[in-house]
Write a structure and sequence with these properties.
alpha/beta, eight-stranded mixed beta sheet, 2 domains, TIM Barrel, 20 strands, 20 helices
Length: 535
Amino acid sequence: MTPGPHRAGGGRAGQASAPSIPGSRPLRLGASKILVIMEENHSIGQVFPSGMPYLWRLARRYARATAWRDVGHPSLPNYLAIFGGSAFGEPQDCLPGPGCIFRGPSVFGQTLRNGKAVRAYEESMPVKCDHVSSGNYDVNHNPWAYFPSERRTCLAGDLPAGTVAAGPLATDVRRGTLPAVGLLTPNLVHDAHNGTLAQADRWLRSWVPVLMSGPDWRAGRLAIVVVFDEGVSTERVPFVIMAPGLSGVVTGRALDHYDLTRLIDEVAGVRPLRQAARASHVARLFGLSRRSGHDPLRYRYLTNVPHGIRTLPYGYNLVDVGPYRSVIDALPARQRALVWIGGYSTARCAFDRSDANIRHVIGNLAGDRKVAGFYIDDEADDALPDVGGHCPDVVAQVAARSRLVRRLAPGTFSYEVVTEPAHFAEFARATDVLGADPYPCLRGRPCDWSMIPRYLAALRAAHVTRYWGVLQAFATRRWRYPTRRELARMVAQWQRSDWQGEQTFTWSLAGLSRHPGLLTVLGAVNRGRAAPPPR
């Protein structure tokens, strides 16, 4: 295979969105479910980047806010603000009862009245909707308990969380029955209130992969938020949002907990609650909103066709080019370049282009908005000794080349296709975006429909989130062209993942054009329309 990105973490999203209109209709969102994970009592500078390295990694991979603020002190007003749309006069932490209860609705009550499911998962809570703190459970971190008009529904939906292996949350994740609105509250150790940031980070590391393994995440229905209730050194607190398709989004816009209330209400399909009516459309800021129907994949790329005008009719928005200014300048307005700067010599265990040559090549293209990213090499993992190569340093070399690209052309991404699932984790750390290329259709045989699911399972197990699926649309002595329905079935398997782009591998558009049914499937997928149903 020859000559595929991540949205680089600038702050563009924050400047691009306008303030929300009070009382405006809820946005149509790509995610239909939201799970909010609350952490405690740390400002952003205490947490990022070194205080919680796993959360920082998630923040960089998906999306984060750099100017998110709490709304008061101590903890309870912040929980009430998020899940009640008001701080209710900033009460001191207190047990639910006379003088410390609040008029509904909460976002939980709103959502239920709209006919959608809600759950609060409280770690270490002894009984449902417990009104008394005990052990490592703190009722001040359980906002639903403070709305007496919702006591009956709280008893039904405010549950002890259980563990990653068993319990209400693990069951809902496994079955794909997470609620439209969910709250996950760690106990006092795991939320960094009484424990350390390292303990909180390890707790997230144990839970987040589980959440991302379930059908809700894989189908693109679930957004996960991690936010701290209040700051200590400053009022700015970490805010991280994860959803399939988000990649490296950063906003520096001034936001606070009422903006999260509005996001929750938009997912629930209800009007913004109390103070949230004047909050920002966080969904727009982070690219979670959509107009209607199926959104096209963020990146669509056809190999071996350097003329964008020929691929544009099929919905491709990235073009396979070399580092040639004239070709890049000629691209249509809706297309950008993925610049091939490979390859890698397995005989010499070195790139064909020296670092000096790369500096010259990229130096001529740096700052060109037509350039989206740089294709480092194709299937460099073939050089590793465990698959018959003799270049043990190839991963480090790809990582060094990727760092050089980012340094020379900030805002672009590096891309590398990897063949063997066993190598996904190490190459994902070495490059910005990983391409995975299972080709299930061999000559003389039915397609192997277990192959793509195996690759997807390996990507999840390796915690790879920025990846494209490479689609088979070519033939060699070993492989054959798939039929139209076989290609549609491949696409359907990839669509059960959180792929951010598709790379169609073909030898030429002329050859692919002899299979118009394949182009019909590819065009539909690239434009966000349903592909013909596979049999």
